[in-house]
């Protein structure tokens, strides 16, 4: 009789154990998030909310059926209907926290949605910055019993596999995560192998601008993508303060400064800038303008280059590489990669005509 009792107890204990952390009788498990915090989450997560766009892109790519709502900034994105399935595009909006700070967030709305977890961003401004961790702790305190799970370093394109893998493990979508990481690894390998042998003095100089006047640049923020593709971001080449760039995450420059840098290529987020720069006398002597190498950054729901700074930028790797080095990548099937990316990451197939429209925008 005692042996039977012991066997029953052992079976019960085994049923309360899982591979990804400890699972208790109350159907929870303990995980470590990307900041090193220990968080108790449901053993099966069905409903997720995110603090802002850079986190929601990761969740959407890995587990769209578990996304409960979009951050309110999604209302400013006008082309999602064309590139996202109706089921996901029509999800409700909730006010979040732009850039990880307190602007616009509404804890009461988050709590009323009763998510299983809330995914938030963690990115300290410097190695000594403790305010980012304190902010994550504040989110947890104000959301009460709803687990808060933090993602780290979403802005770094090379951290994409870690973000995707973490989310796949958290949400039980390891197969989907494997497919997304496989795509990333393939395009990175394709690009980096070819640009590795380019001498420093032969690398393409790139100026990236955000606004309609072309004078708001990125500073160091998006240099990772340019550098990964074998280019030099002129706005961060050398000491910025000595190059005449004002401080801030979105530095303001002058046309004279751009002319002094004389970039080979310009990547621009604003279509109106691309349309007018070729006939603007102030820009006529900039090499990229003279050579007709001003490219509008595609946006299919999310930008391929910047906002939000997350895994949406992965498709920007082959696109930027081909724009910067067209001869080197003349055999690249960019159109095929674009279609594959949208199917994998945005869960909707797009047509050849749509791809042509994207590349000719």
UniProtKB/TrEMBL annotation:
Q: One matching Pfam family, short form?
A: Peripla_BP_2
Fe/B12 periplasmic-binding domain residues are: 37-328
Q: Taxonomically, which superkingdom?
A: Archaea
- Which intervals of the chain form a coiled coil? none
What is the designated name of this protein? Iron ABC transporter substrate-binding protein
Q: What organism is recorded for this protein?
A: Methanospirillum lacunae
């Amino acid at each position: 009789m005692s042996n039977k009792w012991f066997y029953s107890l052992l079976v019960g204990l085994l049923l309360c154990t899982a591979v990804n952390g400890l699972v208790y009788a109350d159907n929870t498990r303990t995980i470590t998030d990307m900041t090193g915090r220990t968080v108790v989450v449901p053993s099966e997560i069905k409903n997720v909310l995110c603090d802002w766009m850079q986190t929601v892109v990761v969740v959407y790519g890995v587990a769209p059926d578990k996304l409960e709502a979009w951050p309110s900034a999604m209302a400013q994105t006008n082309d999602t209907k064309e590139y996202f399935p109706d089921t996901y595009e029509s999800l409700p909006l909730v006010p979040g926290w732009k850039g990880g700070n307190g602007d616009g967030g509404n804890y009461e709305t988050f709590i009323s949605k009763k998510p299983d977890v809330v995914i938030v961003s963690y990115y300290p401004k410097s190695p000594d910055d403790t305010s980012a961790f304190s902010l994550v702790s504040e989110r947890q305190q104000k959301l009460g019993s709803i687990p808060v799970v933090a993602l780290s370093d979403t802005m770094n394109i090379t951290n994409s596999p870690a973000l995707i893998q973490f989310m796949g493990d958290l949400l039980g979508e390891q197969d989907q995560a494997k497919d997304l990481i496989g795509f990333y690894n393939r395009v990175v390998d394709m690009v980096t192998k070819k640009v590795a042998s380019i001498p420093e003095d032969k690398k393409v100089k790139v100026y990236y601008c955000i606004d309609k006047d072309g004078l708001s640049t990125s500073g160091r923020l998006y240099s990772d993508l340019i550098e990964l593709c074998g280019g030099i971001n002129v706005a961060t080449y050398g000491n910025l303060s000595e190059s005449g760039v004002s401080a801030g995450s979105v530095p303001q420059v002058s046309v004279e400064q751009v002319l002094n840098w004389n970039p080979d290529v310009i990547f621009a987020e604003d279509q109106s800038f691309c349309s007018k720069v070729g006939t603007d006398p102030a820009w006529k002597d900039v090499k990229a303008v003279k050579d007709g190498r001003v490219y509008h950054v595609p946006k299919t729901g999310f930008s391929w280059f910047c906002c939000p700074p997350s895994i949406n930028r992965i498709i920007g790797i082959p696109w930027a590489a081909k724009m910067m080095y067209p001869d080197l990548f003349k055999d690249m099937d960019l159109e095929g990669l674009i279609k594959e990316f949208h199917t994998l990451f945005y869960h909707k197939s797009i047509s050849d005509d749509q791809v042509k429209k994207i590349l000719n925008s």
